[in-house]
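Most newcomers find our protein records easier to grasp once they have seen one. A learned vocabulary of local backbone shapes supplies the integers on the structure line. Here is such a record, shown just as it appears in the course material:
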Amino acid sequence: MLRTKSIWVIHNPVKRAIWCSKSDCPKLGRKEVYDVVLDETEENADGELEQIIKLGVTAEAEIDESKIVKKVRRVSEPTVKHHSLGVVAAFRSKRRALRFLDEHFKNNQDQSPDSLELTEIKLTT
């Protein structure tokens, strides 16, 4: 005997997770810095000369391009994270889902939240 059950999902279609093939996809909010090796030397603690290496330099940093020997780009992990389907909450009953929506909009009315949608998902076992 098949018994149908439903779950009620509140989701935000605007805030779904996305997949980008590029490591510098602007939708993921990755930070970008550079490791730079300069054509200058300085003396280390042992008295030996070493090239100057600057780590974590931003693109806006004022470094003379003619002094750069090597520049390596470093891209951070994504800073924008969302649920794959934009799910905010899930409930077994429509009444609880509507109560959640009501409370959510009461608490966030001054912040003009994104539109949330309520969807019924029918499960069969």
User: Anything to note?
Assistant: The chain has a mean pLDDT of 80.
